[in-house]
Amino acid sequence: MRLRFLLKPGWLALTVVVFAFAICCFTLLSPWQFSRNAEREQQNSALEASFTAAPLPLAQLLPPGSVPDQRTEWHLVSITGQYLADKEVVARLRTVQGEGAFEVLTPLRTTDGTVVLIDRGYVRLDSKSGVLPYAPPPPGTVSVTARVRADETDPKNRDAFADASTGGQLQSYVVDSRVVARAGKLDIRPGYFQLDTGQPGVLGALPLPQTDSGPFLSYALQWIAFGAMALLGWLYFTVRELKPGGALDASAAPAQRRKSVAEILAEDELAESGHQK
Question: Are 127 and 217 contacting, i.e. CB atoms less than 8 angstroms apart?
Protein backbone atom coordinates (compact mmCIF):
# COMPACT_ATOMS: atom_id res chain seq x y z
CA MET A 1 0.00 0.00 0.00
CA ARG A 2 2.93 2.31 0.56
CA LEU A 3 3.49 2.36 -3.19
CA ARG A 4 0.37 4.47 -3.61
CA PHE A 5 2.39 7.63 -3.11
CA LEU A 6 4.01 6.92 -6.50
CA LEU A 7 0.65 7.73 -8.12
CA LYS A 8 0.27 11.10 -6.47
CA PRO A 9 0.31 13.98 -9.00
CA GLY A 10 3.30 15.69 -7.42
CA TRP A 11 5.37 12.52 -7.39
CA LEU A 12 4.32 11.60 -10.92
CA ALA A 13 5.38 15.04 -12.16
CA LEU A 14 8.74 14.71 -10.41
CA THR A 15 9.24 11.23 -11.88
CA VAL A 16 8.47 12.45 -15.42
CA VAL A 17 10.89 15.37 -15.08
CA VAL A 18 13.70 13.23 -13.65
CA PHE A 19 13.40 10.47 -16.23
CA ALA A 20 13.00 12.91 -19.13
CA PHE A 21 16.14 14.73 -18.02
CA ALA A 22 18.08 11.48 -17.66
CA ILE A 23 16.96 10.24 -21.08
CA CYS A 24 18.04 13.54 -22.65
CA CYS A 25 21.43 13.23 -20.94
CA PHE A 26 21.99 9.66 -22.13
CA THR A 27 20.52 9.83 -25.65
CA LEU A 28 20.95 13.46 -26.78
CA LEU A 29 23.36 15.62 -24.82
CA SER A 30 26.10 13.10 -24.11
CA PRO A 31 26.12 11.54 -27.63
CA TRP A 32 26.20 15.05 -29.12
CA GLN A 33 29.34 15.87 -27.15
CA PHE A 34 30.88 12.49 -28.02
CA SER A 35 30.25 13.21 -31.73
CA ARG A 36 31.84 16.65 -31.43
CA ASN A 37 34.84 15.05 -29.73
CA ALA A 38 35.12 12.52 -32.58
CA GLU A 39 34.95 15.34 -35.14
CA ARG A 40 37.69 17.23 -33.31
CA GLU A 41 39.90 14.11 -33.23
CA GLN A 42 39.39 13.57 -36.96
CA GLN A 43 40.18 17.22 -37.68
CA ASN A 44 43.33 17.05 -35.56
CA SER A 45 44.45 13.86 -37.29
CA ALA A 46 43.91 15.42 -40.72
CA LEU A 47 45.76 18.59 -39.72
CA GLU A 48 48.70 16.72 -38.23
CA ALA A 49 48.94 14.51 -41.33
CA SER A 50 48.91 17.59 -43.59
CA PHE A 51 51.86 19.13 -41.72
CA THR A 52 54.18 16.35 -42.88
CA ALA A 53 52.54 15.03 -46.07
CA ALA A 54 53.74 16.32 -49.41
CA PRO A 55 51.16 18.17 -51.54
CA LEU A 56 49.33 15.95 -54.01
CA PRO A 57 47.96 16.94 -57.42
CA LEU A 58 44.32 17.92 -57.11
CA ALA A 59 43.11 15.17 -59.47
CA GLN A 60 44.98 12.55 -57.43
CA LEU A 61 43.57 13.47 -54.02
CA LEU A 62 40.14 14.50 -55.29
CA PRO A 63 39.30 12.76 -58.57
CA PRO A 64 36.61 14.40 -60.72
CA GLY A 65 33.19 14.04 -59.12
CA SER A 66 34.51 13.61 -55.56
CA VAL A 67 33.66 15.98 -52.70
CA PRO A 68 35.96 17.00 -49.82
CA ASP A 69 35.21 15.00 -46.68
CA GLN A 70 36.77 14.32 -43.29
CA ARG A 71 39.35 12.05 -44.90
CA THR A 72 40.63 14.66 -47.35
CA GLU A 73 39.94 17.99 -45.62
CA TRP A 74 43.01 20.05 -44.69
CA HIS A 75 45.32 18.00 -46.93
CA LEU A 76 47.55 19.97 -49.27
CA VAL A 77 47.00 19.91 -53.03
CA SER A 78 48.85 21.55 -55.88
CA ILE A 79 46.81 23.44 -58.47
CA THR A 80 47.92 25.22 -61.65
CA GLY A 81 45.74 27.63 -63.56
CA GLN A 82 44.59 31.22 -64.00
CA TYR A 83 42.61 33.32 -61.52
CA LEU A 84 39.24 34.63 -62.71
CA ALA A 85 39.45 38.00 -60.97
CA ASP A 86 36.22 39.31 -62.51
CA LYS A 87 34.25 36.48 -60.80
CA GLU A 88 35.55 37.24 -57.30
CA VAL A 89 33.21 37.22 -54.28
CA VAL A 90 33.92 38.47 -50.76
CA ALA A 91 32.57 36.53 -47.77
CA ARG A 92 31.22 38.89 -45.11
CA LEU A 93 30.68 38.67 -41.34
CA ARG A 94 33.83 36.65 -40.72
CA THR A 95 35.94 36.62 -37.57
CA VAL A 96 39.70 36.07 -37.67
CA GLN A 97 41.68 36.08 -34.41
CA GLY A 98 38.79 37.75 -32.63
CA GLU A 99 38.37 40.63 -35.09
CA GLY A 100 35.97 41.24 -37.94
CA ALA A 101 37.18 40.40 -41.42
CA PHE A 102 36.21 39.52 -44.98
CA GLU A 103 37.48 36.47 -46.86
CA VAL A 104 38.30 36.88 -50.54
CA LEU A 105 37.07 34.05 -52.77
CA THR A 106 38.47 33.91 -56.29
CA PRO A 107 37.67 31.20 -58.85
CA LEU A 108 40.64 29.68 -60.67
CA ARG A 109 40.46 27.83 -63.98
CA THR A 110 42.95 24.97 -63.98
CA THR A 111 45.00 23.90 -66.98
CA ASP A 112 42.57 21.02 -67.64
CA GLY A 113 39.58 23.40 -67.69
CA THR A 114 38.20 22.62 -64.23
CA VAL A 115 37.18 25.66 -62.17
CA VAL A 116 37.97 25.59 -58.45
CA LEU A 117 37.35 28.15 -55.72
CA ILE A 118 40.40 29.61 -54.01
CA ASP A 119 40.12 31.29 -50.59
CA ARG A 120 42.88 33.88 -50.85
CA GLY A 121 42.67 34.77 -47.16
CA TYR A 122 41.25 37.67 -45.22
CA VAL A 123 41.23 41.45 -45.21
CA ARG A 124 40.15 43.68 -42.35
CA LEU A 125 37.24 46.11 -42.18
CA ASP A 126 37.50 49.83 -42.84
CA SER A 127 36.01 52.51 -40.58
CA LYS A 128 32.56 51.97 -42.14
CA SER A 129 32.70 48.16 -41.81
CA GLY A 130 33.42 47.86 -45.51
CA VAL A 131 36.24 45.98 -47.18
CA LEU A 132 39.68 47.55 -46.99
CA PRO A 133 41.48 47.78 -50.36
CA TYR A 134 43.41 44.62 -51.21
CA ALA A 135 45.66 43.37 -53.99
CA PRO A 136 44.13 41.65 -57.01
CA PRO A 137 45.23 38.12 -57.87
CA PRO A 138 48.29 37.82 -60.11
CA PRO A 139 47.57 37.57 -63.84
CA GLY A 140 48.64 34.69 -66.03
CA THR A 141 49.23 31.07 -65.07
CA VAL A 142 50.12 30.41 -61.43
CA SER A 143 50.82 27.29 -59.38
CA VAL A 144 49.47 27.29 -55.84
CA THR A 145 49.52 24.90 -52.90
CA ALA A 146 46.29 25.02 -50.94
CA ARG A 147 44.41 23.15 -48.22
CA VAL A 148 41.26 21.23 -49.11
CA ARG A 149 38.17 22.55 -47.37
CA ALA A 150 34.52 21.46 -47.39
CA ASP A 151 31.90 24.01 -48.38
CA GLU A 152 30.04 25.88 -45.68
CA THR A 153 26.25 25.85 -45.81
CA ASP A 154 23.96 28.83 -45.37
CA PRO A 155 20.74 27.66 -43.63
CA LYS A 156 18.88 30.42 -45.47
CA ASN A 157 20.44 29.51 -48.83
CA ARG A 158 21.15 33.16 -49.67
CA ASP A 159 22.87 34.13 -52.91
CA ALA A 160 25.74 36.58 -53.24
CA PHE A 161 24.59 40.17 -53.64
CA ALA A 162 25.94 43.58 -54.55
CA ASP A 163 24.37 46.94 -53.68
CA ALA A 164 25.27 50.41 -52.46
CA SER A 165 26.34 49.08 -49.08
CA THR A 166 28.96 46.84 -50.69
CA GLY A 167 30.16 49.41 -53.21
CA GLY A 168 28.96 47.17 -56.02
CA GLN A 169 31.20 44.29 -54.90
CA LEU A 170 29.67 40.83 -54.70
CA GLN A 171 29.42 39.56 -51.12
CA SER A 172 28.23 36.26 -49.68
CA TYR A 173 27.32 35.06 -46.21
CA VAL A 174 29.30 31.81 -46.40
CA VAL A 175 32.35 30.35 -48.08
CA ASP A 176 30.56 28.08 -50.50
CA SER A 177 31.56 27.15 -54.04
CA ARG A 178 27.89 26.82 -54.99
CA VAL A 179 27.16 30.45 -54.09
CA VAL A 180 30.16 31.71 -56.07
CA ALA A 181 29.23 29.44 -58.99
CA ARG A 182 25.73 30.90 -59.17
CA ALA A 183 27.03 34.45 -58.86
CA GLY A 184 29.56 34.05 -61.68
CA LYS A 185 27.56 31.57 -63.76
CA LEU A 186 30.41 29.08 -63.50
CA ASP A 187 30.67 25.33 -63.07
CA ILE A 188 32.84 25.15 -59.95
CA ARG A 189 33.79 21.80 -58.44
CA PRO A 190 32.55 21.23 -54.85
CA GLY A 191 34.64 22.50 -51.95
CA TYR A 192 37.19 25.26 -51.83
CA PHE A 193 40.95 25.56 -51.38
CA GLN A 194 42.56 27.73 -48.71
CA LEU A 195 45.92 29.36 -49.40
CA ASP A 196 48.79 29.33 -46.91
CA THR A 197 51.39 32.07 -46.47
CA GLY A 198 53.64 32.69 -49.45
CA GLN A 199 51.31 31.38 -52.15
CA PRO A 200 50.55 33.42 -55.30
CA GLY A 201 47.54 35.63 -54.65
CA VAL A 202 47.37 35.09 -50.88
CA LEU A 203 46.29 38.06 -48.75
CA GLY A 204 46.14 37.53 -44.98
CA ALA A 205 46.62 33.77 -44.61
CA LEU A 206 43.90 32.27 -42.43
CA PRO A 207 45.22 30.70 -39.21
CA LEU A 208 44.89 26.95 -38.84
CA PRO A 209 42.73 25.49 -36.06
CA GLN A 210 44.42 24.51 -32.82
CA THR A 211 45.07 20.79 -32.48
CA ASP A 212 43.85 20.50 -28.89
CA SER A 213 41.27 17.94 -27.86
CA GLY A 214 38.81 20.52 -26.54
CA PRO A 215 36.34 20.07 -23.69
CA PHE A 216 33.86 17.83 -25.53
CA LEU A 217 34.85 14.52 -23.93
CA SER A 218 34.64 15.95 -20.41
CA TYR A 219 31.27 17.53 -21.26
CA ALA A 220 29.98 14.16 -22.49
CA LEU A 221 31.05 12.45 -19.27
CA GLN A 222 29.49 15.24 -17.22
CA TRP A 223 26.11 14.75 -18.93
CA ILE A 224 26.28 11.03 -18.18
CA ALA A 225 27.07 11.84 -14.56
CA PHE A 226 24.19 14.33 -14.34
CA GLY A 227 21.75 11.78 -15.71
CA ALA A 228 22.96 9.11 -13.31
CA MET A 229 22.78 11.51 -10.36
CA ALA A 230 19.20 12.42 -11.23
CA LEU A 231 18.14 8.76 -11.31
CA LEU A 232 20.04 7.92 -8.11
CA GLY A 233 18.48 10.92 -6.37
CA TRP A 234 15.00 9.81 -7.46
CA LEU A 235 15.73 6.26 -6.25
CA TYR A 236 17.03 7.51 -2.90
CA PHE A 237 13.95 9.59 -2.18
CA THR A 238 11.66 6.80 -3.37
CA VAL A 239 13.24 4.32 -0.94
CA ARG A 240 13.16 6.95 1.81
CA GLU A 241 9.44 7.47 1.38
CA LEU A 242 8.76 3.73 1.35
CA LYS A 243 10.11 3.42 4.88
CA PRO A 244 7.77 3.98 7.84
CA GLY A 245 7.58 7.63 8.80
CA GLY A 246 8.35 8.92 5.33
CA ALA A 247 7.40 12.48 4.47
CA LEU A 248 4.53 11.19 2.33
CA ASP A 249 3.33 8.66 4.89
CA ALA A 250 -0.04 10.13 5.91
CA SER A 251 -0.65 7.37 8.49
CA ALA A 252 2.37 8.24 10.56
CA ALA A 253 1.95 10.38 13.67
CA PRO A 254 3.19 13.95 13.28
CA ALA A 255 5.86 13.40 15.92
CA GLN A 256 7.12 10.24 14.18
CA ARG A 257 6.93 11.40 10.59
CA ARG A 258 10.15 12.72 9.11
CA LYS A 259 9.93 16.27 7.89
CA SER A 260 10.12 16.94 4.21
CA VAL A 261 12.66 19.36 2.77
CA ALA A 262 9.88 21.86 2.06
CA GLU A 263 8.69 21.70 5.70
CA ILE A 264 12.22 22.21 7.02
CA LEU A 265 12.75 25.23 4.76
CA ALA A 266 9.37 26.69 5.80
CA GLU A 267 10.23 26.31 9.49
CA ASP A 268 13.61 27.98 8.92
CA GLU A 269 11.91 30.92 7.22
CA LEU A 270 9.45 31.29 10.10
CA ALA A 271 12.27 31.17 12.60
CA GLU A 272 14.23 33.84 10.74
CA SER A 273 11.19 36.09 10.46
CA GLY A 274 10.61 35.68 14.23
CA HIS A 275 14.18 36.71 15.01
CA GLN A 276 13.85 39.77 12.78
CA LYS A 277 10.77 40.89 14.75
Answer: no
Residue of 209, 86, 80 lying closest to 137 (CA atoms): 86
Indicate if the alpha-carbon torsion angle 198, 202, 206, 211 is positive or negative.
negative
What are residue 162's DSSP bridge partners? none
**For 31-74, how does the pLDDT look when each residue is reduced to its tens digit (9 = 90+)?**
999 998 888 787 777 777 777 778 999 999 999 889 998 888 88
pTM for the structure as a whole: 0.67
Q: What burial class does residue 123 get, using C-beta atoms within 10 Å of its C-beta: 0-12 exposed, 13-18 middle, 19+ buried?
A: buried
Q: Are 140 and 201 in contact (CB under 8 A)?
A: no
Neighbours of 76 (CB within 10 A): 18
Q: Over the range 82-95, which residues count as b (16 or more CB within 10 Å of their CB) and which as e?
A: bbbeebbbbbbebe
Distant-in-sequence, close-in-space partners of 264: CB < 8 Å, separation ≥ 6: none
